[in-house]
Write a structure and sequence with these properties.
Number of helices of chain A: 22
Low-confidence stretches of chain C: 272-276
Largest sheet of chain A: 8 strands, mixed
Low-confidence stretches of chain A: 274-283
Strand content of chain C: under 5%
Strand content of chain A: 5-15%
Shape of chain A: globular
Distance between the termini of chain A: 15 Å
Structural class of chain C: mainly alpha
Chains: A alpha+beta (about 450), B mainly alpha (about 290), C mainly alpha (about 280)
Mean pLDDT of chain C: 87
Number of strands of chain A: 14
Number of strands of chain C: 0
Oligomer: heterotrimer
């Protein structure tokens, strides 16, 4: 039934596109990206202009979509009969689209092979492939998450680096001083993607999973309950009320928390403060970059690294000329100067997935990356071994997309932190919600 | 003027035609269409047919605890803001209903919240209520010591409703103020002079002269504000997504879960409820 | 004794007025002050009211199209608000003249029908309108917003203009008709010139509604290049490169045009002529 719907939809899309493109001489290729920040859009637009000059037959139409809005916008696009040819999104969304038969996976493989399969980091390719079914997306760039912490303050108090559960909560407690508006740590405690991302790392380090190897939901496992209990204890040392990424960023830069969880996208902010700081009165910490360390590995019963690979993928059923344009554009984005220009939009935040680019001196030649020096290289290395809820023992469960789109993990956390539920109660609630969601 | 009546009538129809087309096409038709949608399983793709499911959405909605929770939030939000905007508007009007230097400037200033675009005002309030940096927490906790600790007013599910209510009162009381002030100024000063001669206290003057004169305007303000606030979306949603009043619930059902049929059913229920309230209010309270 | 009493009254009055004004102005003060604060001062505790080190960086940032598409959103809002208010005014001049001066069967029914619109909030219409808009192929076009806004503001515009038209002495119109003017000429030559203040007010009212609208714009528009200010700003707040100071500067620049417009018609609105003539 669903396949039929999608087929009809695709046919209609083709029809509409044929009709609309007939009017213009050029072939229009619609490109969706989650890079919504204006300075990034500027860079992408200038890349598009270069592409259009060197490929005059094509016209790229850029549509920016907020990360939290992707599920909504995809459905809205379907509803309005307007799906893009090429999209840049997180691996889970791409895998979900792949599972629903929306992705042109042959085209994806063609591009990967053309660029050179061996040049891609293995870790990034596995995040976008399904054994036996090939690739659902071309790896594009990635980030790693972890705890960013103030090495100077940790040393002052004689605390060990926050790489284990025990060290983390010990430090959070030591720094927590709400009367002075100073807090121990920022982790996600709101109904959003940030909470899921920060929580995942704790769960993975305790070997707690959402799916078992057979695809059953095991959110009420003892390991998960233990993680939830720990997480809600840790949340006692966070700033008031549900916290999101904005709190993490603001409070860390203002020197109000010595620890917070964030992706590598913060490198830009911390690095720029270091170069731009003039030493006047104010609350931004001078030379923050030298005082900051990054713990990307977390340990309880095993090591866990969390991150995200973004990929490029093509939507099935578009006209052949458009598909050709989309493929050329993907290749264009991933090669040489263009790729480096793209990655430098968020230096440190966006890490290369191609070995040859990572070691390219031109890539390393960037103000922020230089400020971070060797740390930058270590950080990017984490990309090769990231773990996720949707991937278990070499298997991929695209149904995770249904769970993430409803922010059930964040809601479960809020049941404990806001409504005072126990970890057991919250886990049972989450289990039930997740079972309903994947049905 | 009895000349050319036929021609006038024809012209009358022509001139009103655009209005009739616009209103029936984009208000009345959609309302009926919405009812029809509420009986269907609406296909995500509008070109494909929907499936008729009868009253299924209505029974689903009415047995859903999320719906009732949201309904309760709506009731709390609407009743507190209606009372709040009316009382504050009345108080402000009474306070400013006198001559003092700078009166017209102050009146203009008081209208600012009502005029400022929601999106602008929302960011001001978000910053004001910030859990760590915000002025509101600083005053309430660190200066006045009214609360033991800083509160995340905007995001916390327990407190966000207060933030939303205060914001709505702030934004909308100037409208009540304006209407009540206009009415106050039309009350003849003779009435008060006569009362003073009779030795009536200020409270008695208010109770027996001012209030009866204001009955109509306050009655109308209450009903309008009730209708508007039951349907209020952006002032709530843009400040805090944690406060799920019915319009927010409908929006999320429709555009986040893409359950158009159920969302249409909830809208229909909301509409019937508001209609019922209007009829009850007009008959029993206003006695019109 | 009497004197003391009046002094006490004055003091109470001033205190109450001060409290009232602080409540009204606090958010504006916060916005203004943080729009002039450099980044490092945003997170200072206790919060400062006057910036220690005022800067125009945020305003420059907002107006620089390479950093922030504010001007593009501004332009989109301007186009949508201008067109919907303009077309709306034309339709309502005709409609309200028809209501005010022409007699025909069914007029009362139509008039009441239009007033019924008060009972339908935007949230009741957004679902069916979204379906209709996509079916008509108007999804992601400015036209979808313009026609929606016209209809949303029509009832009030009709009400306000109708009331005003009725205040024009009928004898003037009659004289013109006896001189051989047609009704349309009467509208064009007499009614419109005499009602300029009311027409301008109605235009501004409709303009403000369109300028501020969020719900329909968030649902009908997809492309970044068509976004109006409310959706554009809200979207920016949820990206990583939001900056408090810049958000505040953008909010202030969004509010200024409507505040100026409103103050210019305040007297007309407050004259009491328009009670009930406002719809949210």
């Amino acid at each position: 039934m669903r396949k039929n719907k999608i087929l009809t939809l695709i046919l209609l899309t083709v029809l509409m596109l044929v009709l609309t493109t007939g009017v213009f001489a050029k072939t229009t290729v619609e490109y969706w990206t989650t890079q919504t920040e204006e300075n990034r859009v500027e860079v992408i637009n200038s890349l598009i202009k270069e592409f259009e000059t060197s490929h005059p037959a094509f016209e790229i139409e850029l549509v920016t979509v907020q990360e939290n809005d992707i599920p909504t916008k995809l459905v809205a696009g379907m509803a309005a009969g307007r799906l893009p040819e090429i999209v840049e999104m997180g691996s889970e969304v791409i895998m979900k689209m792949g599972a629903e038969g929306m992705v042109a996976s042959d085209e994806v493989s063609t591009v990967i092979n053309k660029i050179g399969k061996d040049d891609f980091f293995m870790g990034s390719l596995t995040m976008l492939s399904r054994p036996g079914e090939g690739y659902f997306g071309v790896p594009f760039h990635g980030w790693v998450q972890g705890i960013w912490y103030r090495q100077d303050l940790f040393e002052e108090k004689g605390l060990e680096s926050p790489t284990t559960w025990e060290n983390i909560i010990k430090a959070a407690e030591a720094f927590y001083n709400p009367d002075q508006q100073r807090y121990g740590i920022v982790i996600g405690t709101d109904k959003d993607a940030y909470a899921r991302q920060t929580f995942t790392q704790y769960a993975l380090s305790n070997n707690a999973r959402i799916f078992d190897e057979n695809g059953n939901i095991v959110f009420n496992s003892p390991e998960m309950v233990e993680t939830l209990a720990y997480y809600s204890r840790l949340a006692e040392f966070t700033p008031p009320g549900p916290d999101g990424w904005r709190d993490a960023r603001d409070l860390y830069l203002a020197g109000r928390v010595p620890m917070m969880m964030y992706s590598t996208y913060i490198m830009d902010d911390i690095g720029l403060e270091a170069t731009g700081y003039k030493g006047e009165k104010g609350s931004i910490i001078p030379n923050l970059v030298d005082k900051t360390a990054f713990a990307n590995k977390m340990h309880k019963t095993r090591d866990a690294i969390f991150g995200q690979i973004n990929g490029l993928t093509f939507i099935k059923g578009n006209e052949e000329t458009q598909m050709a344009g989309a493929k050329m554009f993907a290749e264009f984005l991933l090669t040489g100067d263009n790729y480096i220009k793209f990655l430098h939009m968020a230096p440190g935040g966006m890490n290369p997935v191609r070995a040859s680019i990572a070691s390219d001196p031109q890539y390393q030649n960037n103000k922020v990356l230089e400020v971070w020096g060797e740390k930058a290289g270590e950080i990017a290395a984490g990309l090769n071994s990231i773990g996720k809820f949707g991937y278990v023992g070499g298997k991929v469960f695209p149904k995770i997309g249904d769970i993430t789109s409803q922010f059930i993990v964040g809601q479960t956390i809020m049941k404990m932190t806001e409504s005072g539920w126990t970890a057991e109660e919250a886990a049972e609630w989450g289990q039930k919600e997740m079972e309903d969601a994947v049905e | 003027m009895q000349i050319k009546t036929d021609r006038d009538a024809r012209l009358g129809y022509w001139l009103i035609l655009p209005t009739v087309i616009a209103v029936s096409g984009l208000i009345f038709y959609p309302i009926v269409y919405n009812l029809w949608l509420s009986l269907q399983e609406v296909n995500m793709n509008p070109v494909q047919p929907n499936t008729f499911v009868g009253l299924k959405h209505f029974t689903d909605v009415l047995t859903d605890t999320d719906f009732w929770r949201s309904f309760k939030t709506s009731l709390i939000f609407t009743s507190t803001t209606v009372v709040g905007t009316t009382l504050l508007g009345l108080g402000t009007a009474l306070l400013l209903n006198r001559d003092f230097p700078g009166r017209s400037v102050i009146r203009g200033v008081i209208l600012l919240p009502y005029v400022t675009p929601v999106i602008s005002a929302v960011f001001g309030w978000k910053y004001l209520f910030d859990p760590v940096f915000g002025m509101a927490n600083y005053f309430l906790v660190d200066i006045l010591h009214l609360l033991p600790q800083h509160i995340n007013w905007i995001e916390s599910p327990a407190y966000a409703i207060y933030a939303v209510i205060i914001f709505n009162i702030w934004k909308n009381f100037p409208f009540a103020f304006l209407m009540i002030l206009a009415e106050l100024q039309s009350i003849s000063a003779n009435l008060y002079e006569a009362a003073e001669v009779d030795g009536a206290s200020i409270w008695q003057q208010f109770r027996y002269i001012t209030l009866p004169e204001l009955k109509f305007v306050i009655g109308a303000l209450v009903i309008l504000r009730t209708i508007w606030n039951f349907y209020k979306f952006s002032e709530v949603y843009l400040l805090s997504s944690s406060v799920e009043v019915l319009p927010v619930y409908i929006y999320e059902k429709a555009f986040a879960s893409y359950d158009f049929g159920q969302a249409a059913a909830i809208s229909a229920i909301l509409f019937v409820f508001v209609l019922g309230f209007i009829m009850f209010y007009v008959r029993k309270v206003l006695e019109w | 004794m009497v004197k003391q009493n009046t002094i006490l009254k004055k003091v109470v009055f001033i205190i109450l007025l001060f409290l009232l004004l602080s409540f009204v102005l606090m958010p504006f003060i916060t916005m203004l002050s943080s729009s002039f604060k450099p980044d490092r001062e945003q997170g200072v505790f206790p919060p400062t009211i006057l910036p220690d080190d005022p800067t125009l960086t945020h305003y420059k940032g907002v107006l620089n199209p390479e950093i922030f598409p504010f001007l593009m959103y501004f332009k989109n809002s301007l186009i949508v608000a201008f067109l919907s208010a303009g077309i709306g005014v034309v339709i309502s001049i005709f409609g309200s003249y028809s209501f005010a001066r022409l007699e025909y069967t069914g007029r009362a029914v139509i008039q009441r029908g239009v007033l019924l619109v008060y009972m339908f909030g935007g949230v009741l219409l957004v679902i069916p309108l979204f379906q209709m808009i996509t079916k008509l192929g108007l999804f992601d076009t400015r036209a979808s917003l313009i026609i929606t806004y016209i209809v949303q503001t029509l009832p009030v515009s009709l009400y306000m203009l109708g009331n005003y038209f009725r205040t024009i002495p009928e004898s003037i119109e009659e004289a013109a008709i006896i001189d051989g003017c047609s009704r349309l000429e009467v509208i064009y030559r007499i009614v419109i010139p005499l009602s300029t203040p009311a027409i301008v007010s109605v235009f501004i009212y409709a303009f403000m509604i369109a300028w501020n609208e969020y719900l329909f714009a968030s649902v009908f528009i997809n492309s970044s290049s068509l976004r109006t200010l409310p959706i554009g700003l809200n979207q920016l707040f949820y990206t990583q490169h939001y900056i408090w100071g810049r958000m505040m500067a953008a909010s202030i620049l969004t509010a200024i045009p409507v505040i100026i417009l409103f103050l210019s018609i305040e007297r007309f609105i407050t004259s009491g002529l328009t009670f009930g003539g406002v719809k949210e």
